[in-house]
């Protein structure tokens, strides 16, 4: 989703049981702050995916490119969002290039892996590792008895000041004040927000009335 000049939205998990998900917010350059909002919807089968020749590594390419597969998702800020799964005792490391000037981090979802030199200590589930700039990418080993799953997220720095209040992200406090005013008075992109209501709230109201 591209919020642009203004969009009110709600994402609700589909199906029974516990849902697990990751949500990534990517800043827009000042020149793109007021573009028309947009939404790209893809089913799981539409996400680009590929597996290494030896079967040890599978990657789902949510944004960017990896192992020859390219995501259909379009981003205004150059972004890489990769979901890797590595089999236990994989014979070779995952090697993923990352532009030297980009910011990047790894978040481990399942298992444990060594990120960087083989002498480093492994990082386990729910650990986040910030990658330093200036390198040519990341190398990951799975020498454990369990599958390793992690996401690699990277993006090109915008290099602009950031002013943030709640869900609103602009460049100056004055722009934040103007955006809050637009939201409260339903103008400049928020015209439809006046009568908007999330499906979750509707369901709660129907349950209450029933």
TrEMBL record:
UniProt-listed Gene3D superfamilies: Jelly Rolls
All copies of the Pirin C-terminal domain together span 81-185
Q: Which Pfam families match?
A: Pirin_C
Taxonomy, superkingdom: Eukaryota
Supply the name of the protein. Pirin C-terminal domain-containing protein
Give the species this sequence originates from: Aegilops tauschii subsp. strangulata (Goatgrass)
């Amino acid at each position: 989703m591209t919020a642009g000049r203004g969009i009110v939205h709600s994402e609700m998990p589909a199906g029974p049981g516990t849902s697990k998900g990751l949500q990534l917010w990517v800043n827009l350059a000042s020149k793109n702050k007021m573009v028309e909002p947009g939404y790209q919807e893809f089913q799981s089968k539409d996400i680009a995916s590929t597996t290494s020749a030896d079967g040890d590594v599978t990657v789902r390419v949510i944004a960017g490119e990896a192992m020859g597969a390219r995501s259909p998702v379009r981003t205004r800020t150059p972004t890489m969002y990769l979901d890797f799964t590595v089999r236990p005792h994989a014979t070779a490391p995952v090697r993923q290039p990352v532009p030297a000037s980009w910011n990047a981090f790894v978040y481990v979802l399942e298992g444990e892996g060594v990120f960087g030199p083989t002498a480093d200590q492994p990082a386990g589930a729910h650990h986040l590792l910030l990658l330093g700039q200036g390198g040519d990418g990341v190398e990951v080993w799975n020498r454990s008895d369990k599958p390793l799953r992690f996401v690699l997220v990277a993006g090109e720095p915008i290099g602009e000041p950031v002013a943030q209040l709640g869900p609103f992200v602009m460049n100056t406090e004055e722009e934040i004040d103007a955006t809050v005013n637009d939201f409260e008075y339903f103008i400049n992109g928020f015209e439809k927000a006046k009568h908007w209501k999330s499906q979750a709230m509707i369901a709660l109201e129907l349950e209450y009335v029933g």
